Amino acid sequence: MLSMPDSDTLAFADQPTGSVGLVTPHIAQFDTPLALACGKVLPEYELIYETYGTLNAERSNAVLICHALSGHHHAAGYHSRDDRKPGWWDSHIGPGKSIDTNRFFVVSLNNLGGCHGSTGPVSHNPESGRQWGPDFPMVTVSDWVASQARLADHLGIERWAAAIGGSLGGMQVLQWTITYPERVANAVVIAATPRLSAQNIAFNEVARQAIRSDPEFFGGWYADHDTVPKRGLKLARMVGHITYLSEDAMGSKFGRDLRSDDLNFGFDVEFQVESYLRYQGDAFSTAFDANTYLLMTKALDYFDPAALADGDLAKALAPAQCPFLIVSFTTDWRFPPARSRELVDALIRAGKSVSYANIESPHGHDAFLLPEPRYQALFSAFMNRTARELGLEEIR
Amino acid sequence: MRADLELIYDWVPQGAHVLDLACGDGALLESLARDKGVTGYGLEIDPEGITSCVARGVSVIEHNLDDGLASFCDHSYDQVIMTQALQALRRPDKMLDEMLRVAEEGIITFPNFAYWRHRVYLGLRGYMPVSKSLPHAWYDTPNIHLSTFNDFEHLCREKGLVIVDRAVGVGERRGHWTSKWWPNLFGEIAIFRVRRR
């Protein structure tokens, strides 16, 4: 085992209450080759991760956070005092929050194939001597879970007190309960789906085509040309963003508001919603790697545990041993409540312990990232129950 | 625990697999699981009830009973329990069919509209009854299918169901001897245990 961070969070003056404070990412190196679902083998790789809270002596209070499509390891706290925003799930991770870092030791990583520090298309390929780029092998949810299990080994964590994830993160949690049932004490699957619908895949394909048809894409070798397919990534993000919000949320946020008082009768930004989408797209196009985006959307498309069990999801979930909490949001049309219910029904048919709530929210798919009183109360109730069952005490 | 829940507690056998429709805060399922090794799920629609179930470690599914029990397989439970919800359903008769499709036995409780106090309220005062078991005003009540002890027995006969047990609750306690002899008049809460023939 390499370095064992008990806690890599530091309090700083005037940090917001309930914050884990300043955090420093760690990198774990793995030299054992990882055989991937696509048939290729990754000879060695690195995973970047953060931890919040303190691992107890029994190593029984560790919680795994699995990230969504464009997520990463920085889920809570701040990297520097100057950060304008905390980690992506800061509203749910911290002292006194749903995932209470006074009780739990939280591990959050960037998945393989990512572009935030874990081995991925922007990393150096030891075989070719240049960037992996489009040569980086396709990774699936199962591959991620296998690599996460090695991270658990590396940290000396035999069993997660809970594996937790929203959206694509929820799919990883499901896979954990299937592949390593004895290593997950509780599973929280939020705004997820047991498999993508044709419509979901269609949206992903539009995003991929936007990237791949950008003249700056160069078959994925854009780094060799010192460029990035900004326009493609921007479009991909714009179309993705539409699916993350509900029609109502978009309507109440922007309506038909114009940027200026008069119509311009042109194609520049006129409506506020256009301005917003372009802004989101632009910001994303310089912050995210196009090859990674392509890989992540394919991982989403491929996920279908039932397909490996004669199309029977209950049969696929048969190995699972832990209690599940499944959460959906009323206005989520990307992975609608019916998809979560499908999962719940399969778990019931399989005789598993499962609770399900469909939270009223106007925010569409994005609701899983946001604080909402009922969501927080439910999430906290499940986590408190987990802590009680496992006999976890407050550490700080 | 509520009087009707105490009685139901006694009716659920050791180790049974049950479905509790409108399980509320999960108190019944929690004590059944703890004391009798009972397994199963609660169905509930109230957010606070659901959170309370989760806090207790009771498996609870957010579900509108008016949507039926289609996601539950035939004969997959020993008992289906439904307390104080029958009168709020759009089609109580269909729910009864559903309950006895998924389980051998159904336990049902509901407020008895023919309870003497309700009769006095309506018969002498001329108002829709308001009581402990019927606390709502006529315009905001969720109870859209009120019935009596006799009505329910009649429905069971029509459906060819066997009434295994029946009991009444009055207020916080189980029925007085008067309610045993004249349940339709002296029983405030009707409690039935039924099976398919």
From TrEMBL, chain B:
Gene3D superfamilies for the chain: Vaccinia Virus protein VP39
Pfam families, alphabetized: MetW
CDD domains associated with the record: AdoMet_MTases
Protein origin, superkingdom: Bacteria
Protein name: Methionine biosynthesis protein MetW
Protein's organism: Halomonas colorata
